[in-house]
Automatic annotation (TrEMBL):
Domain HTH merR-type: 4-42
CDD domains, per the entry: HTH_MerR-trunc
SMART domains given in the database record: HTH_MERR (SM00422), Resolvase (SM00857)
BP terms from Gene Ontology: regulation of DNA-templated transcription
Protein name in the entry: Uncharacterized protein
Organism name: Crocosphaera watsonii WH 0401
GO terms of molecular function: DNA binding; DNA strand exchange activity
Domain of life: Bacteria
A matching Pfam family: Resolvase
Signal peptide segment: none
Domain Resolvase/invertase-type recombinase catalytic: 59-153
Amino acid sequence: MPRYFTIGETADYFGVSVDTIRRWESEGRITSQRTKGGHRRFLASALAEIEEEERNEKPTLCYARVSTRDKKDDLERQANTLVAYCENKGWQVELIKDIGSGLNYKKRGLNKLIDKILKEEVSRLIITDKDRLLRFGSELIFSLCSHYQLDMD
């Protein structure tokens, strides 16, 4: 008997939100069957095929930042956590590390991140905390990700 996943289980499987699964379905990237009650059910074997296709997609961009050089241990901890998370999901990873104030918009890594988003070179952005992007204004980066339909974790 075939195995089916709920929308929540499917979101966990791909490491994305339930809203992303709904968007993927409306875009035709993923298909579901409906129960009598109207709930979505996703065929497990179809999800495995989609996951394999995703592995061949654009890399996942991980961004780690600390404010000063004396916090370099924390930078490495962030980087290791992000990379391990992505590798566990089977995603191709590109890591950007930055040292600089969260108030500084001219950091090399932040500008590289924005450039990659604008050039549509990545499939998703992963951070440990929204303050790692910018102290104020991380919503601008989130808006860019939304506009270019990048997944966020």
